[in-house]
Automatic annotation (TrEMBL):
Swiss-Prot/TrEMBL keywords: Carboxypeptidase, Hydrolase, Protease, Signal
GO molecular function: serine-type carboxypeptidase activity
Organism: Actinorugispora endophytica
Family under the similarity heading: Belongs to the peptidase S13 family.
Gene Ontology process terms (BP): peptidoglycan metabolic process; proteolysis
Signal sequence, renumbered to the chain: 1-38
Pfam family membership, one: Peptidase_S13
NCBIfam families, A to Z: PBP4
Protein's name in the database: D-alanyl-D-alanine carboxypeptidase/D-alanyl-D-alanine-endopeptidase (Penicillin-binding protein 4)
InterPro entries: Beta-lactam/transpept-like (IPR012338), Peptidase_S13 (IPR000667)
Amino acid sequence: MPTRQGDRRPKSSLTVTTPSLLAAALVAGLLGAAPASADTDGLADLRADLDALLADPSLAGGTSGVVVRSLDNGEVLYRNEPDASLLPASNNKLLTTAAALDVLGTDHRFSTRVVAASRPRHGTLRGDLHLVGTGDPSLTVEVFDRLAADVAAAGVTTVTGDLVADDSWFDDQRLPSDWEEGDLQYYYAPQISALTPAANADLDTGVVAVRITPGESAGDPVTTALEPATDYVSVDNRATTGDPWSVGVDRALGGNTITVTGAMPPGDQGFTTMRTVHEPTGYAADLFARALADHGVEVRGDAVRGEAPGDAVAVARHDSAELGELLVPLLKLSNNGHAEILVKAIDRETGGDGGWEDGLSEVELALTRIGLDTSDLELTDGSGLSRGNRLSAGLLADLLEEAPDEPWFAAWSAALPVAGVDGRLEGGTLENRMRGTSAEGNVRAKTGTLTAASALSGYVTGADGESLLFSVVNNGYTGAAPRPVQDAIAVRLADFSRTAPTSDATAGAVPRQRLLSDPAADHLECSWVEAC
């Protein structure tokens, strides 16, 4: 099961292998000296090397589904356990996003409206003001501010009734039924409603950031602040300034009190961590109420949850960016909340009430339309955090092969992480992987990691310009995630030539370097533990 995300020092304290060391290890391990030979069979070399890589001790006792195909001619270049039913981790998001693009389209926008039963007169709106959501994953404080400014611009200065948050576009199930309880306070496991705030520019939904810094002297309380500022979440600060560094940050399930314990040395730079928010609709209402107050709009009643009247008058509206653009933080940073929002949005678009069970059924139907055989597919969530999902590397390869023929492919492929490229919204979860190799800037692929389950699936161009797809799904290994093996496979594919020798059949040693020193990053996506 996923390891518990511990509290960590700031990102700057993580040890990252230098690009030159990683490149050297890959080159030394994979591109070993092989004399040129006129009768070299490049495909035979490739298969021998991939066999050697999959024999690495880090995969002992596990199952590895691996498929490599040419996109140019459809030829299967390599396969190993292609039909094995495996836990995909975040490779599940490839299915969810493809289905969402099929159902919703790349130009789909999520609307958030402010409505009322009547128009304001002389600055007073008699009755309630309603905030109506449809699942926008990009509801930042800036969006709430713009909505509030528009309400004020519409002439509203006073609301005599309540601020009513309407999240009825989705059902009221906040979490997939089989997510593990130990994960639920951490930001990779947020609750979902049709009004789920995004805490930051990365659009992390359903969470609040806690900034913690030491006091001036030993014995002083530490200082805490919530970002964005909200009264919906409270902090019980029990931590003091002192040695050794031992800060803990916990939100008990079922409530919105975050308890900070332990100690932080004087002069420490402090750190920020995120925790999920219980019942995010109320969180959205609080952020909007604060924005209204900032723009001089007084709401005399309370912030409550309810439904807007069918004949309500429009006061303000915000439309999100197009889905094609929103896929970037989803896939680059492996955002679980966004994937689950898409499942509910798919269900609503196809006539449902915005729930998971029917939404996942619609995901399968969409994949069938794309051309996949889903008879052996099992889905229990959209993001891949659930351990109930099962699929094969062959199914992922089928999706990668069919996708280029779809009208949404350009947006989908552009949102995939890119090996070795700087930037959270460029390289994403592959930013620090395969640097200094032929895979850098070449491999576009989705990562995925849970305890004893890891995957990498995507596209790469070989040495002769041949377009290849690959899917690597590793399950059942012991120890750290076998990312070095996955990277070595991807680099070997980037070097693949049908005619020129690129290695000999004994090559394939996996680099021993570890990309990150944080042990949590060995068992979860690096983005989930703030390590990339």
